[in-house]
Amino acid sequence: MRAMILAAGRGQRMRPLTDTTPKPLLEVGGKPLIVWHIERLVAAGLRDIIINHAWLGGQIEQALGAGAAFGARIRYSPEAPGGLETAGGIVQALPFFEDQPFLVVNGDIWCDWDPSAAVHLASQMEARRALAWLLLVDNPPQHPEGDFVLGPDAWVADRGTPGTGTALTFAGIGVYQPALFAGLRAGISAPLAPLLRQAMTARQVFGTRHTGAWEDVGTPERLAGLNHFLRSGSRYT
């Protein structure tokens, strides 16, 4: 299986830190945020990685190179200033996945989920005839309403869908079938959420609730809190 790290965002809420440094290269726990992802993917056996970038993307390529220092094989998918949004960025990189299910990780999160589960999840997707699997977490203070509802049968529905389920937040980690992106053209900006919601109506998205550590590193304060957690072992708030 191959993996993608999304690293094209501007990081407006992280300014001024991101005025001169792309957010994935901001250091936390002694190394760039994106290196945590690469090392975790390689440890799980996912060595073939593609990274999209837009804002200061040259710095990302210079810092990571071809990935040999991490035991990875890294390729890049450059985007024009402003980026292509999540689905647009994935569509541009689709040929890299050779028409096979693939793992996508947001570059601006930190999570202790084990990516080695991705291969088994891809098999489950085929058995369930699903187009996507999502990792979901308990709603953080900055997003108390959540994104989607996880039912007792592990199927995911849009928030507000009638029926029982727990409202949770999308962790920014998912396994996708290329068919989820059918109809989108490379080079065109497109968000991911509408595609997921459309697939949810056909019961083609399932998920897992992650109860371990996770942080959306969206502000300098959250970056500092995560850094404290990684350096001290104390749970941040």
Poorly predicted runs of 5 or more residues: none
Percentage of residues assigned to helices: 25-40%
Quantity of strands, as a count? 13
CATH class: Alpha Beta
- Helix count equals 7
Radius of gyration: 17 Å
CATH topology: Spore Coat Polysaccharide Biosynthesis Protein SpsA, Chain A
Strand content: 25-35%
Secondary-structure element order, as H and E? Answer: EHEEHEHEHEEHEEEEHEEH
Kindly report the average pLDDT value. Answer: 92
Counted up, domains total 1
Biggest sheet, in brief?
Answer: 9 strands, mixed
Structure description:
There is one protein chain. The strands form 3 sheets. Strands 1, 4, 5, 6, 8, 9, 10, 11 and 12 form a 9-stranded mixed sheet that branches. Strands 2-3 form a two-stranded antiparallel ribbon. The chain has one domain: Spore Coat Polysaccharide Biosynthesis Protein SpsA, Chain A (Alpha-Beta Complex), CATH 3.90.550.10. The chain is built from 7 helices and 13 strands. By secondary structure, it is of the alpha/beta class. The protein is globular and about 45 Å long. The longest helix is centred in the C-terminal third of the chain and has 13 residues, at 220-232.
Gist of the model:
This protein is α/β, with parallel strands linked by helices and 237 residues long.
Topology at a glance:
Blueprint: E1 2-7, H1 17-20, E2 27-28, E3 31-32, H2 33-43, E4 48-53, H3 57-64, E5 73-78, H4 85-93, E6 102-106, E7 109-111, H5 118-128, E8 132-137, E9 148-150, E10 156-158, E11 166-176, H6 193-201, E12 205-210, E13 214-216, H7 220-232
Parallel strand pairs: 1-4, 1-6, 4-5, 8-12
Antiparallel strand pairs: 2-3, 6-11, 7-13, 8-11, 9-10, 9-11
